[in-house]
Amino acid sequence: MEPTTQRSPNRRIAVIGTGYVGLTTGACLCSLGHHVTCCDADRDKLAELRRGEVRIREPGLGELVRAGISAGRLGFTRSSVSAVRDADAVFLCLPTPMAADGGADLAAVAEVVREVRGHLPANGLLVTKSTVPVGTAARLAELVGRGDVAVVSNPEFLREGRAVQDFLAPDRIVVGAAADAAAQRVAELYAGVDAPVVRTDPATAEVVKYAANSFLATKLSYVNDLAELCERVGADVTGITTCLGHDHRIANSFLRPGPGWGGSCLPKDTAALLHTAEAVGVDLPLVRAAVETNRRQQRRAVDKVVAACGGRVAGVRLGLLGLAFKAGTDDLRDSPAVAVAGELARQGAELVAFDPALRGDERGLPAEVAVVDNPYQAVKGARAVVVLTEWPEFTDLDWSQVLDLAESPVVVDTRNAVDVAVLRRAGAVVHGVGRG
Ligand SMILES: NC(=O)C1=CN([C@@H]2O[C@H](COP(=O)(O)OP(=O)(O)OC[C@H]3O[C@@H](n4cnc5c(N)ncnc54)[C@H](O)[C@@H]3O)[C@@H](O)[C@H]2O)C=CC1
Ligand SMILES: O=C(O)[C@H]1O[C@H](OP(=O)(O)OP(=O)(O)OC[C@H]2O[C@@H](n3ccc(=O)[nH]c3=O)[C@H](O)[C@@H]2O)[C@H](O)[C@@H](O)[C@@H]1O
Question: Which family does it belong to (predicted)?
Fold first, then answer.
């Protein structure tokens, strides 16, 4: 392990895929002094990016993109071949979604590598930032078929909603390479980022990414299991997690119970790790249990709403606060809030929702949910108000007004997001998570 060096770099970099990870990687590497060309298959997205418009909600990203364009060091293209031709390093930031069998679908990665392999400059670097299963770097090296090109694994650990901050101030930078020289060249691209660099082999780097996400998922499922226990025995999970968090070995994060963990990565990455393990005859019972608890936790959130409404929700109007998979993002991929809403709709509930990050025309919104642009409208006439995402804005609502507008004072807070004292002062009948 070593700190990154402070030498000012100025390399030519290509980034393929301009989603949460790719655009953040491109804009941040540009802010470190490099010349970056970002490539994407989506024409509309490219047109917006060339105008400096960023469609995802990531604080600071739009500013970095516009600064890079103004400085003449950040460009966008649809042609992967032209992006890589002069690049000292090519970062693959392509989607690796869950395949039908639970494994990672590497189709986009393989397709792009086939496109660019004959056009990489001599002694090129192909860097996988996408989350890819163990053995991918070795397989891509074979696919590239050139002894002068090094394939290096450099997994990304950023969180959505804090992507720029996490990229520029990460807990660690992991570089997995078969040869020291290639690892050194990738580590140098991060000069200026104050973080430990862990150099390792590609297989270890690839597994680390899945190990980290699965660890976080397991920690959360443990807390959600404890929440269930607390409800049965009259204890308070928040008091317990506060005490646990004071123990430095446990650390005071990822301890908030909720309607299950979601997002574009934890669910697919736990599934992919299980798939990898199964393929080599290894059982990972803890990760399996974490996934199973997560399914149960989503069902428990639905059951709690149904019970709070007297046992059935068919024809019952519910006001939903939050649909994003967590606060701070507009991403709906694998959102537990959407899963809970979907099941309530299946049981016949009439759903009206508000989420501060959503306009109502986003892809991934469940068709059965009417999305409105103000929280008070969402709760009007509702039999229960259901808090599904922990937006801080929800604590600041005028809860007396919320309860006046709703048909009954029932609040189901699936994340303990709103201060329970505030709710009770307003006269709410509160159903939280993990409170006896
Ligand atoms: N979203 C996150 O917070 C994190 C994601 N990751 C990993 O990074 C990878 C990318 O994830 P996201 O950025 O969230 O994905 P995303 O879906 O936001 O972006 C992927 C981009 O790739 C483009 N694309 C797809 N196929 C293409 C092709 N053949 N040629 C050129 N462009 C193409 C898409 O148009 C899209 O803009 C995944 O492996 C994910 O697991 C890793 C850390 C954090
Ligand atoms: O590989 C990835 O894509 C990323 O996945 C997660 O980041 P992200 O998906 O942005 O979301 P998290 O902040 O990890 O939250 C995941 C889920 O856990 C839930 N959560 C989180 C924390 C908590 O205390 N309680 C809780 O229920 C969130 O609401 C959300 O549904 C990891 O935290 C990142 O390190 C990783 O890079």
Answer: Belongs to the UDP-glucose/GDP-mannose dehydrogenase family.
Residue 140, amino acid: L
The lowest-confidence range among 243-247, 365-369, 385-389 is: 365-369
Burial (CB count <10 Å: 0-12, 13-18, 19+), residue 236: middle
In a domain, 229, yes or no: no
pTM here? 0.96
**Could you list the residue range(s) of the whole structural domain that residue 18 is in?**
2-200
Q: How far apart are CA 328 and CA 331, in angstroms?
A: 9
113 located within any domain: yes
Q: Is there a domain that residue 211 lies in?
A: no
User: Among the three residues 152, 179, 200, which one is the final residue of a domain in this structure?
Assistant: 200
Residue 20 Cα to ligand 1 middle (Å): 7
Ligand nearest to the Cα of 116, by number: 1
The CATH number assigned to the domain holding 413 equals 3.40.50.720
Q: Hey, which of 16, 94, 153 would you mutate to test ligand 1's pocket, going by the most ligand atoms within 8 Å of its Cβ?
A: 94
Rg (Cα) of the chain, in Å, rounded?
23
Question: What backbone phi and psi angles, to 5 degrees, belong to 290?
Answer: -60, -40
